[in-house]
Amino acid sequence: MRMQIIAGMLMVALPPGDVHAMEWPQKHEDCMARMPANQREINECARLEYLESERELNSLYQRLLKVDPNASALSEAQRAWLHFRDKVCLYEQGFAQPGGSAAGMYHQDCLTRHTRRRIEDLRRGLQKYQH
């Protein structure tokens, strides 16, 4: 019983990312297979999904920069797109209950949705240079 109380106190005291660092899956797919049981776990799964899409986006972007003869325009467009995505997602986060436990999930879902769209754009761009 005493250990459960201490563990509970640690979960409250530590930020969400630290709580699951050792025990929580590191991939979105594994996270969802675990069947998140509460909003905090759902938020963590949403965060993992976003991070995976962000890694894929960055990889595609770096590959495209290497082959696109107009890489400076691509860089400028990417910076503008990131600014747009972040502003749109801050706006959409406002749809959640202010201060509610799902606000982070709304934000992460928005970031993921827009990042996946951009991934498709970059894939099409990369296809132009692949033979």
Polypeptide structure, described:
The structure is a single chain. By secondary structure, this protein is mainly α. Helices cover 76% and strands 0% of the residues. The chain has six helices and no strands. The termini are far apart. The longest helix is centred in the middle third of the chain and has 29 residues, at 39-67. The protein has a single domain (2-127), classed as Up-down Bundle (Substrate Binding Domain Of Dnak, Chain:A, Domain 2). The model is unreliable at 1-22 (pLDDT under 50).
List keywords for this structure.
single chain, 131 residues, mainly alpha, Substrate Binding Domain Of Dnak, Chain:A, Domain 2, 76% helix, flat, disordered N terminus
Average pLDDT rating: 81
Helix amount, in percent? over 70%
Spans of 5+ residues with little confidence (pLDDT < 50)? 1-22
| Cα-based radius of gyration, to the nearest Å | 18 Å
Please count the helical segments.
6
What composes the largest sheet? none
Q: CATH class, please?
A: Mainly Alpha
| Count of separate structural domains | 1
- The secondary-structure class comes to mainly alpha
Global geometry:
flat
> Order of helices and strands, N to C?
HHHHHH
The tally of strands reads 0
Strand proportion, as a percent range, falls in under 5%
